[in-house]
Amino acid sequence: MKMSLKSDNKYLKTLGKISPILILLVVIILLHLFGVLSWNRDQAAIEVGLINSLVVLALFLSYTMLNICDLSTDGCYTLGVAVGGVMAASGHPYLAIPAALLAGALSGLVTAVLQTKMGVNSLLSGIIVNTGLYSVNIVIMGKSTINIFRNETIFSIVRRVFGEKARMGFENAFERMPKSPLVQYSALIVAGAFVIIVITFLSFFLRTKLGLAIHATGDNPEMVRSSSINPVMTIITGLCISGSMTALSGCLFIQYTNSADINVGGGMVTMALASLLIGGVFISEGSIAVRCLGAVLGTIIFRLIYAIALALKIDTNLLKLVYSLIVVIAISTPYFKKQLPMIKRRLKHRNGGEVRG
Questions:
Q1: Mean pLDDT of 91-119
Q2: Domains of the chain by start residue, with CATH
Q3: Which of 49, 72, 108, 51 lies closest to 275 in space, CA to CA?
Q4: Lowest model confidence (mean pLDDT) among 125-134, 135-144, 146-155, 305-314
Q5: Please, are residues 147 and 126 in contact by the beta-carbon 8 Å criterion?
Q6: Nearest-10 crossing angle of helices 231-257, 96-116
Q7: E strands in the chain
């Protein structure tokens, strides 16, 4: 009997976790049937979700592991856009990747130094760096907008490679040969490859001595100090890596969209935190790789919900309100899930009291 109850509880717990995904899938299918959504919109949402999931993984490291809410994320993301865009515009789309990683690491280094060496509060240091990066990004971009429509990007190169490989050896019938089916999924493949690389790196890095020290610093900094581990070094390392991943996301985004403005990173930290919490609703336990996959899933769900709002032709002036509502729901859901047993007990007690009366 006890085993049966345990299995029933486990089943209900699993059902409670996957039910929101099932509801979202049903809504998406219905919108497809009524012609509101299309696969092209879904694919674009998933592609942007994968690119932006690198920011969520960056916050997974800084917020979940290191217990620091880095508010410089918005500016750091735009920094990646600026550096990646300028490098791609100069004809170096591949070099844009290490350049963005380095720029993001420098941003994280400044944020960490303000916290550890100058006694600035972690939230305030993020705000200071974010404010300063606005001017830095303007200087790098040269103006408030940047476009690279006429330049080669990683995505256009991969798309061309897929198309040429499908026609290799058919020079005489070059024009008549169809493109590879992979061409339309090239952006999905590129974004997915970067996500896999970052998740693999995090899963290995966080198992190293330094990675474990970073996690320990977030859990109990006092214990870390007493065990001869330098928390200054762990904070600096964690924020540098986090900044690198955030800037990498921005670099990929500009090469994906080919245009952006100085405000492209606005609200990125809010989106990332919401996506992290959405992912935690479905996957909150398991290995580092599994939890990272949960964060990626949360980002894709966030983008799909946003795509539904766009498909429903909601007034553009209200999109920020929709954005805020998604964030509020994502943040409050875990709280209400924890409060649900208490609410049930109160209702049961109240109903029992009425019967006795």
A1: 94
A2: 26-344 (1.10.3470)
A3: 49
A4: 305-314
A5: no
A6: 140
A7: 145-147, 259-261
Q: How confident is the model at residue 249 (pLDDT cuts 50, 70, 90)?
A: very high
Place of tokens 């856009």: 81
Q: Which long-range contacts (CB under 8 A, 24 or more apart) does 128-133 make?
A: 129/72, 129/75, 129/76, 130/71, 130/72, 130/73, 130/74, 130/75, 130/76, 131/75, 132/75, 133/72, 133/75, 133/76, 133/78, 133/79, 133/107
* 29 pLDDT tier (thresholds 50, 70, 90): confident
pTM, two decimal places: 0.84
Cβ atoms 260, 145 nearer than 8 A: yes
Q: What are the angstrom distances between the C-alpha of 241 and each of 35, 98, 103, 201? A: 43, 13, 11, 11
Residue type present at position 346:
R
- H/E/C letters for each residue in 65-76? HCCCCCCCHHHH
Looking up tokens 């550096």 gives: 83
Burial of residue 13, with CB atoms counted within 10 A of its CB: 0-12 exposed, 13-18 middle, 19 or more buried: exposed
